[in-house]
Write a structure and sequence with these properties.
This protein has one domain. It starts with 5 loop residues before the first strand and ends with a helix. A 3-stranded antiparallel beta sheet has the order 1-3-2. The chain is α+β, with helices and mostly antiparallel strands. The chain has 3 helices and 3 strands. The longest helix is centred in the first third of the chain and has 9 residues.
């Protein structure tokens, strides 16, 4: 009998992230991998491994802000990314039949009730 209970599948997901730097935008996107995988499956996951990352859109938005409409101009930068990630998921497949069933009764008659029944 084969006792191996883990399996490996591959899946593709799309994730998005934004931030005030390139690194933060990508990091925010990558943190969504686990959330999206957990939402898709009810399996017991051992490992989620990104195998391939493809950029769908990479944007840099620059906005100029002013204090009181014309004083102290400053530029703000906002990065946003959309990525397609191919992941390898290692998960457990445990079937109810795999468990050894042992039943115990917790409601036992006290000894004095057993003795009453004998008389």
């Amino acid at each position: 009998m084969d006792n191996k209970i883990n399996n490996i599948i591959e899946d593709e997901i799309k994730i998005e992230g934004s931030g005030d730097s390139k690194e933060r935008a990508i990091s925010n996107a990558l943190t969504q991998i686990q959330k999206k995988i957990m939402a898709k499956t009810k399996k017991i996951i051992l490992r989620i491994e990104p195998v391939e990352v493809e950029a769908i859109t990479l944007q840099k938005k620059i906005a100029t802000e002013h204090f009181l409409f014309f004083l102290f101009p400053r530029k703000t930068v906002q990065y946003s990314v959309e990525l397609k990630v191919k992941v390898r998921i290692n998960y457990l497949t445990i079937i109810e039949n795999d468990f050894l069933v042992e039943e115990k009764s917790k409601n036992k008659f006290p000894d004095f009730l057993k003795q009453l029944g004998r008389n």
